[in-house]
Design goal:
Distance between the termini: 38 Å
Structural class: alpha/beta
Helix content: 25-40%
Strand content: 25-35%
Number of strands: 13
Shape: globular
Number of helices: 7
Length: 338
Amino acid sequence: MAERSEVDCQTSGVGHDTEDDPDQAAAGRRSVESGHHSSGNSQSSTKSLSLSGSVFEQILENGRAYAKQSYFMPCDEQEQTRLAVTHQCFTSILNGQLSFQGIPRSAKRILDVGTGTGDWAIAVAERFPNAEVVATDITCFQPTDVPPNVCFEMDDAQEEWTYTEPFDFIHIRGLSGAFRDWTTVYKEAYKHLQPNGILEVADFGLVQLMESIPDSYLSIYNGACLAAADRSGVELGLDHLKKAMLECSGFNFAKSRTFDVPLGTWSSDPRKKVAGKMALISMLEGLEAVSLRLLTQHSGFKAEDVRDICQKVKEELMRPGVRPFVPCQFTVARKLMV
């Protein structure tokens, strides 16, 4: 991966004695019981999903399942598979590590916000058996056969956090566009970190091309998604990883680094080819996942039109000679000692 930027300041005390074992995470699958209702022209229905005695209602819309009305990303089995591949892609980018900064070996409590399939939380729990790992999400498709030191909870990070004990490390990944107000989320993270505790946020940006194609389907797709997200009140991209946003939430900004991850195998670097294969699968599957609800709800698209533009983008990205890539950014901040 091409490394594009790095900013460092006052990083002492962050990330010493860190994890060094290979990642062996695995995701599980859930089963659902169905109900039904109609909702406008979105072709919507519901299903009830059960995990550890809790019942969670999914919204079925245009052939995809969603956790709530306000979040545009699906939570069905197709998305679970994509998230599992994405986890492996992040791990490959980080050379087998689970974090960019490194989790201190002394960490006793670790929080994973927006855990998805739980792959990261499970891997961390296995690598840090003496730490308590709490993993939260607005849905509950995580596996039940997990290490004893990991706990999955249904929670919305946009609401007030109610933890009674602070964390040593908080991890947020792959949530671009998830929150209307990232500052509120960061302030809650700051409040619930130990002094000198670490926050690490990571995300992929929008797919780009090494050599631009005039009037490309990719540019049309990106523009449509950005506009729809704006209408919905959220932002796609990587602005939530900016230094100023973290600092205004109380954090001491440590560092940020962006890697350009090639999509596919066009890179001459063998390691980049491995990450590129997984990134390509994740991004191709993610085209519909990102756009379907945004464009049908906020831009007046029909579902078949969204899938048509997604297919055209896929064909364009796979054409010989086209070199797509996606920026992947990691940002680390810490809570100052009191």
